[in-house]
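Structure tokens please, single chain.
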Amino acid sequence: PAVAVATEANQIVASSVSGVLAHWKRGNVDFKMGFALLAGGVIGSSLGVMLFTFLKNQGQLDLVIRLSYVIFLGTIGFLMLIESVNTMRRSRKQAVPARRTHNWMHGLPFKVRFRRSRLYISVLLPIAIGVLVGLLAAIMGVGGGFVMVPAMIYLLGMPTAVVIGTSLFQIIFVTANVTVLQAVNTQTVDVVLALLLLAGGVVGAQVGARIGVKLKGEQLRGLLALMVLLVCAKISYDLLATPLDMFSIGLAGEP
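Here you go.
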């Protein structure tokens, strides 16, 4: 898992660049929001690599990574699936969507206008989301999209079409930071594996951007929820099932 986490972060950089270019051509990237998310993401990813190194030295890294996946993927996937199904039901009934109500988040200071996202909110919110996603990118080796996308939609209230391109923009720099720090501190980046993943990721990002244009926001969220829950189910099974090899031989300190 240690090598998988560090190497996957490297691959995410390339696929995110490809995805951002595709969404930018369609005007679906809010760069101002992206820089706010990036500010928190750099802080979170730097702290996450420090925590990653500590857990690796304590021998608890594999368990923490797997449990983190199960908890985050299960919770977020379940909530997103319920929301997307309810939205599709309302759209079929042609129900009028409920107006957004103000809550405590709208009272936070340092408000900034994000014109592309049609928002006027505190810059502290995207920074906080960026910190959380940066931590996840460092510890779990993910771009954080399964956390960032729901947070940007439900907490910030951004349009789904703008969310995807903007989240990819932030992920480029956060995962690049993670890759450099992992290579320097833990030496767990597999360059050959990263190049193979990179080739598929770049193509997949372009195909995904074209498919996404043809789907509604609730349909995109539903598909993401299903993929998240499938991954969660596989990791949960691996945690509970009896391993084929009960023992492994390795040198102390190896990843």
